[in-house]
Amino acid sequence: MILVTNNEGTPGVGETARRLARGEPALDAIEAGIRLVESDESIRTVGRGGWANLLGEVELDAAVMDGGSLRTGAVGALKGFLHPVSVARQVLERLPHELLVGDGAARFAREIGAEQAELLVPRAAEAWRQWFEHEVSAPDRARWPDVALSDYCRHAIDPEIGRDTTVFLAIDKSGNVASSTSTSGWAWKYPGRLGDSPIIGAGSYADSRYGACACTGAGEMAIRCGTARSVVLYMKQGASVTDAVMEAVNDMRHLKSGLISRVTIHAIDTKGGHKVAAVNGDGTQHYWHWSVGFDAPVALPAQPVTAHPGYATTPGSDRYTRG
Ligand code: GLY
């Protein structure tokens, strides 16, 4: 079985399904699928073609988790490499660590011969330039980048609200469960900002005894709630996959300050069940589902759930409050 974000998973879901149908391990199948998403420039929130940070640089986050061993590998704020998911996979395979960030992650990527690439494509560079020209004050433009960036990230509106990280969850023929994520994160983020995607337990988690979960959208919310681990833990405690996801939605309802925006929670159990809830969603969020015997993956709508009634669903409504 596979559960994948729609749109951001589209270039890779077929490949993952073919590999799973051939009997490949779940982790190999989802890594192969995500690599196709990372190289597809039309996916503007993942890999090459992703959005830049406040300084106009693309920083990528990715993670993998093997639910049999509970081994993980993740990279954060990685610059200059085409396939962060494969660098994350090699963290799992080669290191006694679970997460590398920034310069250390880039050093490791070079060491293993990971493919280097210019990640900022002309479309994204032009979008950043437009942001810079219109949103940055003239004195700050003159001194750039030696300026305080914090106000700019507090007031920046992500142009891709409603677009997402790519997340893949899968169970293979042996019953092994795996999860993986990859993203460029929010546009115009503060340099070095990690979202939930490289944070195991927040943006993804897999345990072959119970199931797996992964989130897209505002990573700050999933980090604060420890959403992915919570969903799997609720299943361990006996909740159905639907109840586990809805309990995680309840956890998000307690967030009253900080960045409040959209999060989509994707989860599978080991019995073939799945649930996808779009927290503060507007009804447009979809996902891909595939199981053995399907001719092809099918796109299904996520259940929109209002967690913050004051949250309007139009771009620009995302709000940040101190607290
Ligand atoms: N969920 C991806 C991010 O917040 O960066």
Task: List key phrases describing it.
323 residues; alpha+beta; Glutamine Phosphoribosylpyrophosphate, subunit 1, domain 1; eight-stranded mixed β-sheet; five-stranded mixed β-sheet; globular; binds glycine
General description of the model:
The protein has 323 residues and is of the alpha+beta class. The chain has one domain (2-322): Glutamine Phosphoribosylpyrophosphate, subunit 1, domain 1 (4-Layer Sandwich). Helices cover 32% and strands 24% of the residues. It is built from 10 helices and 15 strands. It has helices at 10-21, 26-39, 84-94, 102-111, 122-135, 138-143, 150-155, 219-225, 227-236, 241-253, and strands at 2-5, 60-66, 71-78, 99-101, 166-171, 177-183, 204-207, 211-217, 258-260, 263-269, 274-279, 286-290, 298-301, 303-305, 319-321. The strands form 3 sheets. The chain has an 8-stranded mixed sheet with strand order 4-3-2-6-5-1-12-13. The chain has a 5-stranded mixed sheet with strand order 7-8-10-11-14. Strands 9-15 form a two-stranded antiparallel sheet. A hairpin with a 4-residue loop joins strand 10 and strand 11. The protein is globular and about 60 Å long. The N and C termini lie far apart (41 Å). The chain binds glycine. Glycine (GLY) is lined by residues 165, 183, 185-186, 195-197, 203, 216-219.
